[in-house]
Amino acid sequence: MTNQPKPEPLYGAGLWHFGQFRDRYATDGYGPPVSTLEAIDRAGDVGDLSVVDINYPFNPAELDIAAVEDALKANGLRAIALTPEIYTRTFCRGGFTNPDPEVRRQAIELVSDAADLTRRLGGDYVKLWPGQDGWDYPFQADYKALWAMSIDAVRELAQRHPDLRFAIEYKPREPRNRMTFSSAARTLLAIEEMDVPNVGILLDFGHSLYGLESPAEAAQMIMARDRLYAIDVNDNFRGWDDDMVVGSVHLVETLEFFHALTQADWQGVWQLDQFPFRENAVEAARAGIEMMRTIWRALQVLDTEALAEAQARQDALAAQRIAKRALLSAQTEGPERGY
């Protein structure tokens, strides 16, 4: 027996997908600088995106919010979230965990400003990625102090903006060698200590892989506590956060991840977080959406009863056959989408 047909999900992307990429080798960038308005136009060229997550401050920083609203409207897009940049050079020793209380306050106020703009844009959440919060060397920091500062900062923001949701994106490392919010379990524990109703998790599929989690299991753990606010999807070789096109390496685990979401009737956006350093950004987004659409079709033909029976027996080979049969049939079955 297969699933009952369900509406196709909405697709989204982080606006950085369409920006300029740099690393420690090509410090001048893999292409010219891209403004926020130019990135919005590129996102609009994809054709299948409904929402974007926008970096804040905008580029250029003095860009008026009205211009952003106009660009989104012209491209048929909605801002699902803002991501305040609390991980830049200003916060290289930490945002929420910076040893300087004035810098910590600066990070909190930057997020608060982003929250106000998220409200104006009608976004669903403010994304928190405190990439500089953590440590690099043994004995460098008091772990209890870092933990307390992280929890206190997010709690303050949640209480200051009770009408908004804040989604923490955890990651095991980079740019810090060890990050405070490094796994699903640690982040859930922190949220429990915050004791506020409007803080949850953005689960980045690649971060979960990179952290040696099972993304499907992590999603189930988070959803069981009603804290899965959003997802970002990409792929990697598990040794680094490569942010490759969806399904490039871990196709079966990607299917399992989305199966876990659909079994729990999770209604969120299927959102890209890819870094096409050397590829055309618009074409890479289309490739990611094409793969997600293939996975969606596979879930429509997946024999869920047979899969449940195989899982009850913990029959690995039978479960794999059922999952792979759905994936292969999705290449030829389902709605015609021009692929």
Summarize, please.
The chain has 339 residues and is of the alpha/beta class. The protein has helices spanning 36-46, 65-74, 101-121, 143-160, 184-194, 205-210, 215-223, 251-263, 281-301, 304-312, 316-329; strands at 11-14, 51-56, 78-84, 125-128, 134-135, 166-169, 178-179, 199-204, 228-232, 270-272.
Q: What's the number of domains? A: 1
What string, H for helix and E for strand, traces the elements in order?
A: EHEHEHEEHEEHEHHEHEHHH
What is the spatial order of strands in the main beta sheet? 9-8-6-4-3-2-1-10
Quote the CATH topology: TIM Barrel
Mean pLDDT: 96
* Gyration radius, in Å: 20 Å
CATH architecture: Alpha-Beta Barrel
> What is the level 1 CATH name?
Alpha Beta
* First and last CA, distance: 26 Å
Structural class: alpha/beta
Low-confidence stretches are 333-339
CATH superfamily: Divalent-metal-dependent TIM barrel enzymes
Largest sheet: 8 strands, parallel
Residue share in helix: 40-55%
Count of distinct strands: 10
Global geometry: globular
**Helical element count?**
11
Report the β-strand fraction as a percent range: 5-15%
